[in-house]
Structures are given as C-alpha cells and as structure tokens.
C-alpha cells in the first residue's frame, strides 16, 4: 500500500473510531425535588468523582444533573443513565424493580431518613391515628417524604385519603402551614426544619420508619465487573485523605453497602 493510500486508510479509521472514542457513560445526579440546589453546582460537586470513575472504567463519565422527577423517572425507565445518584428512594426502587438497575451503594448519613409529623406545642393530638379527618401539609406529592407520610398513614389509619393533604414545593415551607393554622400537622424529613421547629417549642407527633435515600444505582448495560469497580471506588472514598477531599464538595460522609432485597422490601411498604 502506497503512502497516499495508507494516509487515506488511516484517516478513514480515525473517522470510524471517533464516535467510539467520544462515547462515554452518563452519571445522572438528582439531589431531591424539595431542596434548592442549582444544576451547575451539582455538576461541579461531582466533577472529581466523575474524573476518577472515567479513569477506572476507561471511558469518559459525564455528570448530568436531573432536577425534576418526571424526567428522572422517564429516563430511568428508558435505561438512559449508566449510573445515577438518586435522592428519592421510590424512584431508585422502581428502577431496580422494573428496569433492571442494580443497587451499588447508599449514602452514609442518609440511611435513617424519616418523615417527622410536626404539631404546635399545644396540639391535643397524641398519635398518628388522631390525624384522621384533619389537614396535613407536606412537601411535593412525589417527594420521598410524602411517600413515607402516606405509607405511615396507611399503617395508622388504613387509608391516607382519610387525611386532607396540602402539598408545597419545598420542605422549608411546611411549618408555615401549621404556624398559620392552615393545617393541623406538617410533615417534613429535613433535619434543619425539624430542629428549627423544636427550637421554637414545636413538637414532633410521630416519626416514620427510616428509609435510606441517595442511592447510587447502575444500569443493566454495565457489567458485573464494572459495577464492582464503581462500588469499590465509592466505598473507598472516605478511607483516604484524597478521597475525603473529593467528597467535600458533596457534603457526604461517604458511601455504604445495602442489601438490595431489603431495599425492595422498603418499596413494598411504600406502596410501589
């Protein structure tokens, strides 16, 4: 083959190889629907972790912030994300149950996420069963907090429809309902909101079962070996100074393993 033909051959090979060279993995990140976090901040927080995963998996890993649940739900059903950090446990569980995703890790410090039912200091309510027929304020209807609220009410009164719900976009708006007598009870899982409520003399009537949130899940398109690489890397982060520096922007302590069957059992309790 002459020099000219060789150059043409190599150029053709490069053109054919280009799409594969550019191909990479999409790591979706959702940090909840009831918290105020701009997408640009989310992408920046996970940049170092994505870079490390790209080296380990030998292909680029791109962070894709996903702010709304309808998009997250749809794209998970389509298996569009190779990896996903999913704040709402119910969407992660559905992806595992229906779309073949695998639970990789859960986030330390978020294994005991619970819905707290807030009432005024002088409230006559004594138990969750007393809420039947009353008004309750809660964050976004599709938030994991509201799913926990409805599951808790099923346990207490049989049917959550026995309570009149008022939903609001953000968790920090819930106390307003109770303070201004718009609802008898307010439900939130945000620790800062709960602490502020108690500091002002408010009471917590009931605390739901804990549900681990902020799961990292992997698409069925990833091999068992790749899932293992991702899991081992994430579990190792809090074990070294370098790893802890990469965790700092996320504000997470680290990651932990969790039994997938136990997670699916939580899904049953939630009504999924």
UniProtKB/TrEMBL annotation:
Q: Which SUPFAM superfamilies match?
A: Periplasmic binding protein-like II
- Coiled-coil annotation: which residues? none
The record's Pfam families line, in alphabetical order, gives: Phosphonate-bd (PF12974)
Keyword set for this entry? Signal
The region annotated as signal peptide is 1-23
Gene3D superfamilies per the UniProt record, alphabetical? Periplasmic binding protein-like II (3.40.190.10)
Q: What is this protein called?
A: ABC-type phosphate/phosphonate transport system periplasmic component-like protein
Q: Which organism is it from?
A: Methylibium petroleiphilum (strain ATCC BAA-1232 / LMG 22953 / PM1)
Which lineage is the organism of this entry classified under, starting from the top rank?
A: Bacteria, Pseudomonadati, Pseudomonadota, Betaproteobacteria, Burkholderiales
């Amino acid at each position: 083959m002459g020099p000219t033909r060789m150059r043409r051959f190599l150029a053709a090979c490069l053109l054919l190889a280009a799409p594969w060279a550019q191909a990479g993995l999409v790591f979706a990140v959702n940090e909840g629907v009831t918290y105020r976090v701009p997408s640009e901040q989310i992408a920046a927080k996970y940049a170092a972790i994505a870079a490390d995963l790209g080296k380990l998996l030998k292909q680029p890993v791109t962070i894709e912030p996903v702010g709304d649940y309808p998009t997250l739900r749809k794209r998970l059903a389509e298996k569009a994300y190779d990896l996903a950090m999913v704040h709402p446990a119910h969407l992660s569980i559905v992806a595992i149950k229906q779309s073949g995703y695998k639970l990789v890790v859960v986030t330390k410090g978020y294994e005991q996420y619970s819905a707290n039912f807030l009432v005024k200091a002088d409230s006559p309510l004594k138990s969750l069963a007393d809420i039947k027929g009353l008004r309750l304020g809660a964050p976004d209807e599709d938030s994991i907090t509201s799913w926990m609220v409805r599951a808790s009410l099923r346990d207490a009164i049989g049917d959550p429809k026995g309570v009149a719900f008022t939903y609001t976009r953000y968790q920090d708006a819930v106390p307003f309902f109770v303070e201004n007598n718009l609802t008898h009870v307010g439900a939130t899982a945000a620790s800062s909101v709960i602490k502020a409520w108690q500091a002002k003399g408010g009471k917590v009537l009931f605390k739901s079962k804990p549900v681990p949130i902020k799961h990292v899940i992997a698409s069925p398109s990833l091999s068992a070996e790749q899932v293992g690489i991702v899991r081992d890397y994430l579990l190792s982060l809090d074990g070294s100074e370098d790893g802890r520096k990469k965790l700092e922007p996320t504000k997470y302590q680290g990651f932990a393993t969790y039994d997938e069957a136990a997670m699916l059992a939580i899904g049953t309790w939630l009504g999924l």
